[in-house]
Request: fold
Amino acid sequence: MKVVEVSAYAIRISLRKAIKHASHTRTETENLVIRVVLEDGTEGYGEGVPREYVTGESVPSGLDQLRNSQLAAQLEPCRDFASALAAIERFRIAPVPGDDRGCVGNAARCALEIAWLDAYGKSFGEPMCNVTKYLAPEIYRFRTKVQYSGAITGAKGFKAVLAAWKMWGYGFSQVKVKVGIEGYDDVARLRTIRARIGSKMDLRIDANEAWTPAQAIDRIRELEPFRITSAEQPVPHADVAGLKDVRAAVSTPIMLDESLCSYTDGVKAIEGGWCDAFNLRLSKCGGFIPTLRLAQLAKAHNLRCQLGCQVGESAILSAAGRNFACSVADLKYLEGSYDRHLVREALGTTDLTFGWGGWAPAFIASGLSMSVYADGLARVTTSSERLI
Reply:
């Protein structure tokens, strides 16, 4: 069975509300969707969410890399799902000079890889969660349902009160708060939030590279009385080596995000003693399989993992993330499936949004276990082209 067509769609989707953090404020998302067609007519869809401030890529640059990746030669015929997985893992997107981290183009690779997995999964009758079972059995554990955490982004003052009550009222057991936003009093915000969510809810913070290492020590110490369980990416990637000193000075576990986009990043982080946990996101890490390899690396070195998401993911990435979440053991936190709450066009023919408490069911159908709404894709497409 071989791939006979690969098409790319640059899409733009408006968000239902502005999402603000220390690095960016976003009211819409520009994503890359890939459609793969096999010779038996089976279609697969994948999605990537490129962010220049994370992996140094955009939709146009990602498309350029795919055009230069000799797709026809790399999309080799596959006789079964196992050979498809091997071929997909071998795929390499065209390198970018100076990319010593090996992460530029990860969103584009993710979009192609998920489409490829979706198509072959459907053709061979395999759900995407089985990728973990076949490629990483030591971290495989199937769960019939998973629980996502809530998030409070730019809310302050009375809006922070309302946001915290919403988290409590919706039944979440975990919530992440964006901190380090210029002009915000994070101590006052976390005091307000902790008072409304109660003492039992797990509370963690994400600074999105807001502080220097010295500032991170002071800021995290100020917030530790509110019983935070993790501090995500407190310093810019350029200062990531300083996290070794931050870890020594605070009691809160440190999680990498923007500084964890590739296997190379993961190895350096472990060798440098920079973190206690990895934030895994399919798009920034290059797809389902590269993200699995990072999860294996973390387990081998006794680090915790979170499955994160990119702001603006459609149902395509939500479905891929759900398959990952339901098949990988010991994920400390889960983020994603915000579809109905965040994007105005989710692209799925079924609603994948998590339910009360953040709970969501596993998928057991083949491939992504979802279908793309063609009319919705057409509405948000700004340009499209056939790559092979």
User: Anything to note?
Assistant: The first helix runs from residue 52 to 55. The domain at 133-361 is CATH 3.20.20.120 (TIM Barrel).
